[in-house]
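Researcher: I'm comparing several assemblies side by side, and this is the next one on my list. It has 689 residues spread over two chains. Same procedure as the others: predict the full complex and return the structure.
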Amino acid sequence: MNIHEYQAKELFAEYGVPVSKGVAVQSEDAFNEALNQFPEGGTIVVKSQIHAGGRGKGTFVDGFQGGVKLASTKDEARDFASKMLNNTLVTHQTGPAGRKVQTIYFTEAESIDHEYYLAILMDRETSQPVIIASTEGGVDIEEVAANTPEKITKVYVDSALGLQPYQLRAIGFGLRLSRSTFKEMTQALQGLYNLFWEKDASMVEVNPLIVTEDGKVIALDAKVGFDDNALFRHSDIVELRDLNEEDEKEIEASKFSLNYIALDGNIACLVNGAGLAMSTMDIIKHFGGEPANFLDVGGGANADQVTAAFKIILSDSNVQGILVNIFGGIMKCDIIAEGIIEAAKNVKITVPLVIRLEGTNVEIGKKLLDESGLDLVSADSLADAAEKIVNLVKEKQA
Amino acid sequence: MSVLVDKDTRLLVQGITGKFGGFHAGLSMEYGTNVAAGVTPRKGGQIWEDKVPVFNTVKEAVANEGINATAIFVPPPFAADSILEAIDAKVPLIVAITEGIPVRDMTEVKTALKNSSCRLVGPNCPGIITPEECRIGIMPGYIHMPGRVGVISRSGTLTYEAVWQLTVRGHGQSTCIGIGGDPINGTSHTDAVKLFNEDPDTDAIIMIGEIGGSAEEEAAAYIMKNVKKPVAAFIAGTTAPPGRRMGHAGAIVSGSSGSAKGKIAALKEAGIAVAETPSEMVDALLTIYNP
């Protein structure tokens, strides 16, 4: 689960990580009250709040440039904010559809002396948290890693021991910090690590983490993601979830414990198991089609879940065909077939439907489908199924 | 003719009195697995289904029933604790089926594993099976057939797909190991490849990977250096959009790392036969393997 910058900075403040003074607003009526909290004459940063990077270089769908703007007066800040709020911002991370901006974050501008990069992640290779720090902040870290790896310091934390003082010093030396900022920076780092560990974050990224001209350390941006599996023990974090940032179909799917991810194609798929669901998308593409979604109904799907799955798939207006691919293991094929037949009674399926069943009780399942009177095509293998649905959709388009 | 589990395996099921654990403990017994004990705290002294003694702690189960493997069917908030208990009781093989264990808990499990001689398989996996000898986990037993191909996979149903292709075409399996779909797991692809490489009764290997992390690349490097047996592979997720978790917690392309393209290239470079589609996993193996 991801959260907005302004929410992340509230958490930073809780953990003693310095951030600029800022106010988040969700409506135009609240602009004045928010701006009144800033001193006259100071520069104000106006920041669009969406769960995607590249906001500063982004463009709104109406042509307005930049999701992050510097305003030299409050009037200018108000003007920028009203152009951003409820407008749709497209960045290199949002895809062409962009994201609607529903929160504006005003912050005080800072005079930057140096920008650093800092991130804490769970490293899969060592199974431990890793802190990644760089003297090059405010730029794409992958480029720094590729071109000038010597500018990156990595410290692996033994989770049983926690972050040690020598490790904090190693980062401080790696960043070539002056004596005066060393202590402040390591305190901020300790705070970020504590946040990462205590809140079960999957990632904490500060880009840039700055030292101001008067020597203060400030987290100028903040990106925090959490381990979905650990949300059960963090009700405070769950409250930060912004459903506006999620696809409606994905929210609906999560209510039925279905794993659904919307994609851009026109062939929907309904599969049991995550690996098989991904492979089904891949094989649709292999035969020249484009998958409309990833959908894993899980190992023990029942008729209610299959019905919900069909409804969600069909609510996507791009869908022109459906491929059902079930490998019945413990979940028997006849039970799945009954679920499909039940679902088809409740949901009108008007696009071509190809079904591939394999595994336990496959013959009974196929017989049930054949006798149901449903308009469907059955397939023998995964390749056969994918080829059939791709061709049916193409025929319909022709 | 197997690795990790066989007819001498004496299995403990942690969470045997739960619905899920009980159901699969029953299926494992029907398959011929020696389910020797169960553990559910505060239910010690019961006899599950009139067949299996239940203990309060893993140590008691080990002391009384000579356990040498355990299956974890405990809900996610308590699963890591159950694994730690099994490590403390020195159970040599721990198979964690549970899906949804917090990553932070798994880092602590990994630290405990480092200081022990136990092996963990999973979590978030279908388990391990040696056909007609021992079934630990949730896979459908009947699709398997004894033979000489080792199967390794991060996914459940995709493994069944591979196994079924093998069985239908008359190629049996030595052992099938589901290593699980989580970002931090106990046994890696490389660990499993090593086991099969050293097993005199395994002649060929099918390795199924997916997007996320670099475990497949590491296995490819190991295979290139050390493995003479024919290896075929398939990587799921060529069409997965970057930055999204595809069902499995570990299946995510982050930045430039973890993509299917990079993995496939690494596997091919190591001389591994990579299947273009999941329908062709056995075809790919048979291009380099003549049983």
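Model: For your comparison table: Chain B is about 35% helix and 20% strand.
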